[in-house]
Design goal:
Layout (H helix, E strand, L loop, with lengths): L4 E4 L8 H16 L8 H20 L5 H13 L5 H16 L8 H8 L4 E6 L3 H10 L8 E4 H4 L6 H11 L6 E5 L2 H10 L3 E5 L15 E3 L5 H5 L13
Parallel strand pairs: 1-2, 1-4, 2-3, 4-5, 5-6
Helix pairs in contact: 1-2, 1-4, 2-3, 3-4
Length: about 240
């Protein structure tokens, strides 16, 4: 049976999270007078991302709330015992810088436009509805998706099969009728494939060029290749750069 719907990851798939995070942290550290303590924005960002991964793992394991993992990211990053209000205020100031750098990747709107008639669309993200709903609205693409599902509300996160199957259920489609597009080879790529979806792993710029691709997902370098992978009746698709 043909693919009838595409479920999308958001960060670093539709939305250029890496650039926004880097530029947001750079601006925030300068404004807070903290840049000198880390030497370079790159070192600060590497530390911030390391802490983010650690705290998100705690959230995924049910050890803390979504708000709690944000507060603990700040406390660990600064090495200070902040109150909840103090941690929230620091994170809010960071968000101001981060959000000013928000943008879609340039291949997103052409792909969505091309697939608008042939496929239904939804979002599945390892974040919260509060965060991603607001982000998608600010980026002007919220209305492109008939369902937006996030780990914080689902109670299960990628790469667990339950997260992907929840998206299929929301669309009232079987997994083999749904494609999932995401940027992480394991969390998105292998996770979606193991759940029975057509898994499409987007590796922009060959970020994972030295990584052996996981078994299951189709690997593309640009969303211009997606219609061909889906078998869409369109001239937009480009041949894959990965063979």
């Amino acid at each position: 049976m043909s693919i009838r719907a595409v479920v999308w990851d958001v960060d670093d798939t539709l939305f250029d999270y890496t650039t926004a995070d880097r530029e947001g942290m750079r601006g925030h550290l300068v404004a807070e007078g903290l840049l000198a303590g880390y030497g370079t924005p790159e070192r600060a960002l590497a530390r911030w991302r390391e802490i983010t991964d650690q705290q998100w793992a705690r959230f995924s394991a049910g050890e803390t709330s979504f708000e709690g993992q944000r507060r603990d990211r700040v406390r660990v990053f600064l090495g200070e015992k902040l109150t909840d209000d103090e941690a929230d205020a620091w994170f809010s100031r960071y968000l101001g810088h981060y959000e000013r750098a928000w943008s879609l990747f340039p291949d997103v709107l052409p792909a969505l436009d091309t697939l608008a008639v042939s496929h239904r669309h939804a979002v599945l993200s390892n974040s919260s509805i509060h965060v991603q709903d607001r982000k998608l609205r600010a980026l002007g693409v919220h209305d492109r998706f008939e369902a937006i599902l996030c780990a914080a509300e689902l109670g299960v996160s990628k790469p667990e099969a339950g997260a992907f199957l929840a998206a299929c259920d929301a669309l009232r489609l079987a997994p083999h009728q749904v494609a999932y597009v995401g940027d992480h080879p394991e969390i998105d790529g292998r996770g979606a494939a193991d759940a029975g979806l057509l898994s499409v792993w987007i590796d922009r710029g060959g970020v994972y060029a030295t990584v052996a691709p996981p078994v299951g997902p189709r690997r593309i370098a640009s969303l211009a290749e997606l219609p061909a992978v889906l078998g869409a009746d369109t001239r937009f698709g480009a041949p894959s750069t990965f063979r």
